């Protein structure tokens, strides 16, 4: 989860790639209006695994999708 851009975007992408290479499923969540969607797309394992929400108070609206996706990822 992020509300903008990571402090070290290159390192963030490198670490995400290492995790993906270990078959770890990554879901990225951008919160607010200043989110770098390119970075979020690079972190997420699949395009469908990237979520955007307008603020922390709106996380409940994506909770069901996040839970479903997490459970599907674990069962595969």
Describe the structure.
There is one protein chain. This protein has 76 residues and is mainly α. Helices cover 47% and strands 11% of the residues. It contains three helices and two strands. A two-stranded parallel ribbon has the order 1-2.
DSSP helix count?
3
**Shape summary:** flat
Mean pLDDT: 90
Which parts are unreliable, with pLDDT below 50 for 5 consecutive residues or more? none
**Termini Cα gap:** 23 Å
The order of strands across the largest sheet is: 1-2
- As a whole number of angstroms, the C-alpha radius of gyration is 12 Å
Order of helices and strands: HEHEH
Query: How would you classify the helix and strand content by structural class?
Result: mainly alpha
Strand content: 5-15%
Report the helical percentage: 40-55%
Q: What's the total count of β strands?
A: 2
Protein name: VWFA domain-containing protein
Provide a quick synopsis of the model.
This is VWFA domain-containing protein. The chain is mainly alpha-helical and 76 residues long.
Which labels suit this protein?
single chain, 76 residues, mainly alpha, two-stranded parallel sheet, 2 strands
């Amino acid at each position: 989860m992020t509300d903008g851009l990571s402090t070290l975007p290159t390192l963030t992408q490198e670490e995400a790639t290492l995790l993906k290479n270990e078959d770890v499923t990554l879901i990225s969540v951008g919160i607010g209006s200043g989110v770098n969607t390119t970075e979020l797309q690079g972190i997420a394992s699949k395009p469908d695994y990237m979520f955007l929400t307008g603020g922390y108070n709106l996380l409940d609206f994506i909770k069901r999708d996040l839970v479903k996706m997490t459970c599907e990822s674990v069962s595969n």
